[in-house]
Every structure is written in structure tokens, then in C-alpha cells.
């Protein structure tokens, strides 16, 4: 399924590049960027990781990452020809498997962390001047997320097999992309990096826990690719 998706994306991008980078293209959607308010939606996939900060120099916790998906809406306020403010609320699903050193039993050594984030980013989009039917841009800003799979309120901890994280996460994201103006809509692929600023770990009751005792901070890091339709 992943190979089929990647093949479709590659073919679509090749078609767009061929049609948009002609020397004298027919200009599509010439008034698209003149509207004060603009709306759209996005689909995409993500690859989330964790950044660990440790108290002592002990063997590191291993992270096995897997691809997740993104879906969301877009509201855009035009400031001028080159600047837009965007609100992009979305749903992000991801799964990470943590491997803790020092255990013989798999049930103690592994923790599967499933996270469903409701993301609320407020972003600033800076674009170049439009060149034919395409326009590069950079984008960045802050976000607040609600992790629906956090287990923060659970009375169980790792001693019972439950890895807990905080519900509320704050951070920032940075990225770049290209707006392609097709005949009927604006298509914008972009690559983003996401960086949490807050510690997300809920520690075990035992301060010397072999799972959380040596963790000074746990923060989300990730890369995601969005395909926007406006």
C-alpha cells in the first residue's frame, strides 16, 4: 500500500512539474491569492520520533518508528502579496515502540506508544513572487496539541505495562514547500519538521523506576509531509 501511495505521489508531482514549468504557461487561478480569506484541507503522512534527555550516562532507550497519517483543515488570512497567517487544525496518528535496556522479558523491555494528536498550529507563511503557475514558500510557527492516547490519568504505570505521557504538548514547526496552480485548485506539497518544547513524560510512582527513573525529559520530534488542496 505504501509503495502504491508513493508511486502515485511521484507520478502526480512529475505531471505537475511538466505542466507548470513551461516557458510560457497559461496562468491558472490568477485571482487565487488576492482573496482576504482562503480555505482548504490537507492530507499527509508523518514519521514521529522521541528526543530523550538523560540524568546519568546509561544505555539509551531505543525507538522503533513507523509511518502515521495526517488530515486537517486550513484557514488562511492574507496579509500582503508575500505573507499569510494560517490556522491548520488537524488530526495526527502515529505509533512508536520503545525498547528499554536491561530486561530479559519482552513484556518488560518493550512499550508500544500509540498517539493521536489533535493539533492546533498558528503559522506564518512567507512566499516568493509567483513564477508562472508555481510559487515556493517557507512556513513556521507554534502549536498546541492534545494527545488523546496519553494515558496521563491512568492509575497504572510501567510496572503494570502502561507507558504514560502528558495530554498537553506545546512546540513549534518549520517547513518549506511549493504552491502549484492547477486549472481548478491550488495544490501545495510541503515538508515540515515538528519540535516539542515541553517534557511529555509522566513518570512512574517509583522514582527509581527502570523505565522512567533515568529520563530527565522526553520530547517529540518528527517529520511530516502534507499535501494541501485550496
Write the SSE topology.
Blueprint: H1 2-20, E1 37-54, E2 62-65, E3 67-78, E4 83-87, E5 90-99, H2 106-109, E6 110-127, E7 134-147, E8 168-181, E9 186-196, E10 215-229
Antiparallel strand pairs: 1-3, 1-10, 2-5, 3-4, 3-5, 4-6, 5-6, 6-7, 7-8, 8-9, 9-10
Structure in words:
It is a single chain. The chain is mainly beta. The chain has one domain: Porin, CATH 2.40.160.20. It has helices at 2-20, 106-109; strands at 37-54, 62-65, 67-78, 83-87, 90-99, 110-127, 134-147, 168-181, 186-196, 215-229. Strands 1, 2, 3, 4, 5, 6, 7, 8, 9 and 10 form a 10-stranded antiparallel beta sheet that branches. Strand 8 (168-181) and strand 9 form a beta hairpin. The model has no long low-confidence stretch (mean pLDDT 89). Residues 30-200 form the Outer membrane protein beta-barrel domain.
Amino acid at each position: 500500500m505504501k509503495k502504491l501511495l508513493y508511486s502515485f505521489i511521484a507520478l502526480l508531482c512529475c505531471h505537475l512539474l511538466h505542466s507548470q514549468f513551461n516557458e510560457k504557461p497559461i496562468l491558472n487561478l490568477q485571482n487565487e491569492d488576492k482573496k482576504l480569506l482562503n480555505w482548504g484541507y490537507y492530507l499527509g503522512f508523518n514519521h514521529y520520533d522521541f528526543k530523550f534527555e538523560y540524568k546519568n550516562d546509561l544505555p539509551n532507550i531505543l525507538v522503533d518508528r513507523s509511518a502515521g497519517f495526517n488530515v486537517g483543515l486550513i484557514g488562511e488570512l492574507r496579509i500582503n502579496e508575500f505573507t499569510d497567517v494560517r490556522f491548520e487544525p488537524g488530526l495526527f496518528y502515529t505509533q512508536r515502540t520503545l525498547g528499554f535496556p536491561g530486561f530479559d522479558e519482552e513484556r518488560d523491555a518493550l512499550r508500544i506508544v500509540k498517539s493521536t494528536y489533535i493539533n492546533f498550529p498558528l503559522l506564518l507563511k512567507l512566499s516568493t513572487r509567483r513564477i508562472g503557475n508555481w510559487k515556493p514558500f517557507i512556513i513556521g510557527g507554534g502549536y498546541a496539541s492534545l494527545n488523546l492516547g496519553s494515558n496521563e490519568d491512568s492509575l497504572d504505570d510501567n510496572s503494570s505495562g502502561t507507558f504514560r505521557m502528558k495530554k498537553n504538548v506545546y512546540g513549534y514547526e518549520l517547513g518549506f514547500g511549493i504552491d502549484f496552480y492547477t486549472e481548478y485548485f491550488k495544490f501545495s506539497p510541503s515538508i515540515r519538521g515538528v519540535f516539542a518544547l515541553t517534557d511529555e513524560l509522566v513518570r512512574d510512582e517509583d522514582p527509581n523506576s527502570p523505565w522512567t527513573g533515568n529520563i530527565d525529559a522526553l520530547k517529540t520530534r518528527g517529520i511530516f509531509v502534507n499535501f494541501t488542496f485550496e
